[in-house]
């Protein structure tokens, strides 16, 4: 994990000392200060549906959510989340006892881990991992145990034997992310079935970050882990309006889980933000009820952009790992004669006015991802084309 040296942060506790500033803040600041195209931090450069934006304005004007909303989230949104899980996946959840609204998926991750882990518990997580996973596990005093996704035939794959071998008697929880950031891997039905079997056999809790559930491409399908036998009662599933509706600044996320898990996560969540995003919760409730055409269009738009950026990166000399989900492409910079992703990303704005993310920071051992760089394609096609033009001059 990268960022400031610990001597620059003398008061920070030892558990967080290795984390520094998040790579997303660091690279977005670099994009701003250099006027570069930001393909680093994953946020769209166009807002989500106009009617959803209008719904937020209406809520604000009507005085809905301008004061503290209820702790678990406004009933309209909890009902809409439950309806979405039922409509898309056939998963019934009770809006009153099995849904919790959070300040983005980020808080859902933090509250889930804080609620469910004791110091010393082991958490098995897919590596490279989203940076908040490692930091939140550290905050709980738990221990992260990575299972590394490795390139195989042009894409990153999970080795199920390694996953099995990572589970010990101290393992409390599996932290899964599919579609997976940053690799774009979408776990297959067979892989998920094996993960589920393992969780049941070893009696593990599962926290599954499914924020990119609507962004799956080609023949990939998103199958929630909670749909597998024995999983509903042990699984906390995380969603995000930032990712699904392109309003990352609204910070609306949610979990769905069995009542005892929701109660536990709510116990932690109430002392983090307590509540957040009042008026936006009403707008997201309307967004979740949008017809399938919205979700299909969202996916089709992102797929077209994946292909623009993927082709462009290939033509610029990068090795491209084809993502089957998310809005990120992981590349290898070795064919460009480069070795060090972090140094490459620090220099890239000066060299050609583009910002990207070094995947090395998502590994416990940065060597493992030393030559991997992630580009986000949730940007307008003309912006992607301009970025590609610049990268081709490298
Ligand atoms: N999980 C993953 C895998 C992510 O990529 C992100 C970034 N959006 C989050 C969680 C956090 O989502 P939110 O913005 O809703 O807090
Ligand atoms: N999830 C976004 C990404 O992976 C970043 C969100 C953040 O900055 N916390 O790029």
Give a description of the structure:
The chain is an alpha/beta fold. Helix content is 40%, strand content 16%. It contains 13 helices and 15 strands. The chain has helices at residues 23-34, 50-61, 75-89, 104-116, 131-140, 160-166, 189-201, 241-245, 259-269, 278-288, 292-315, 341-352, 381-392, and strands at 37-38, 99-102, 122-127, 143-148, 150-152, 155-157, 171-177, 205-209, 235-240, 253-256, 319-321, 328-332, 354-355, 357-358, 372-376. The protein is globular. The mean pLDDT is 96. It binds 4'-deoxy-4'-aminopyridoxal-5'-phosphate and glutamine.
Concise synopsis of the structure shown:
The protein has 13 helices and 15 strands. Helix content is 40%, strand content 16%.
Rg over C-alpha atoms, rounded to the nearest angstrom: 20 Å
The small molecules bound here are: 4'-deoxy-4'-aminopyridoxal-5'-phosphate, glutamine
Please provide the count of β strands: 15
Distance between the termini: 27 Å
Query: Count the helices. How many?
Result: 13
Order of helices and strands: HEHHEHEHEEEHEHEEHEHHHEEHEEEH
Provide mean pLDDT, rounded.
96
Shape annotation: globular
Set out the fold topology.
Elements: H1 23-34, E1 37-38, H2 50-61, H3 75-89, E2 99-102, H4 104-116, E3 122-127, H5 131-140, E4 143-148, E5 150-152, E6 155-157, H6 160-166, E7 171-177, H7 189-201, E8 205-209, E9 235-240, H8 241-245, E10 253-256, H9 259-269, H10 278-288, H11 292-315, E11 319-321, E12 328-332, H12 341-352, E13 354-355, E14 357-358, E15 372-376, H13 381-392
Parallel strand pairs: 1-13, 3-4, 3-7, 7-8, 8-9
Antiparallel strand pairs: 2-10, 5-6, 9-10, 11-12, 12-15, 14-15
Helix pairs in contact: 1-12, 2-10, 3-10, 4-5, 4-9, 11-13
The chain binds 4'-deoxy-4'-aminopyridoxal-5'-phosphate and glutamine.
């Amino acid at each position: 994990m990268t960022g400031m040296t610990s001597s620059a942060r003398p008061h920070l506790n030892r558990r967080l000392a290795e984390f520094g500033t998040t790579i997303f803040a660091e690279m977005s600041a670099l994009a701003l200060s250099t006027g570069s195209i930001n393909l680093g931090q994953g946020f769209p450069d166009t807002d989500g549906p106009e009617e959803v934006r209008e719904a937020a304005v209406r809520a604000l004007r009507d005085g809905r959510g301008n004061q503290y909303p209820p702790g678990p989230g406004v009933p309209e949104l909890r009902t809409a989340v439950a309806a979405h899980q039922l409509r898309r996946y056939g998963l019934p959840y009770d809006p009153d006892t099995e849904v919790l609204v959070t300040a983005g998926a980020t808080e859902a991750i933090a509250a889930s881990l804080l609620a469910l882990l004791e110091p010393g518990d082991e958490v098995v997580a897919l590596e490279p991992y989203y940076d908040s996973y490692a930091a939140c596990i550290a905050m709980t005093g738990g221990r992260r145990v990575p299972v590394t996704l490795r390139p195989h035939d042009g894409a990153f794959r999970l080795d199920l034997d390694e996953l099995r071998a990572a589970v010990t008697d101290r393992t409390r929880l599996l932290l899964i992310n599919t579609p997976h950031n940053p690799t774009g891997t979408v776990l297959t039905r067979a892989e998920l079935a094996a993960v589920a079997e393992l969780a049941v056999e070893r009696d593990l809790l599962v926290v599954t970050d499914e924020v990119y559930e609507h962004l799956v491409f080609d023949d990939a399908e998103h199958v929630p882990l909670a749909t597998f036998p024995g999983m509903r009662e042990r699984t906390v599933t995380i969603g995000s309006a930032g990712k699904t509706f392109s309003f990352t600044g609204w910070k609306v996320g949610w979990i769905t889980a069995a009542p005892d898990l929701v109660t536990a996560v709510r116990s932690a969540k109430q002392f983090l933000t307590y509540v957040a995003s009042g008026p936006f919760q009403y707008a997201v409730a309307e967004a979740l009820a949008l017809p399938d055409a919205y979700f299909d269009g969202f996916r089709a738009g992102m797929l077209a952009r994946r292909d623009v950026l993927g082709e462009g990166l290939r033509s610029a000399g990068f090795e491209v790992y084809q993502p089957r989900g998310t809005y990120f492409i992981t590349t290898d910079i070795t064919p460009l004669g480069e070795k060090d992703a972090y140094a490459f990303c620090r220099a890239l704005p000066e060299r050609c006015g583009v910002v990207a993310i070094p995947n090395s920071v998502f590994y416990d051992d940065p060597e493992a991802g030393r030559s991997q760089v992630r580009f986000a394609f949730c940007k307008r096609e003309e912006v992607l084309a301009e970025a590609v033009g610049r990268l081709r001059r490298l």
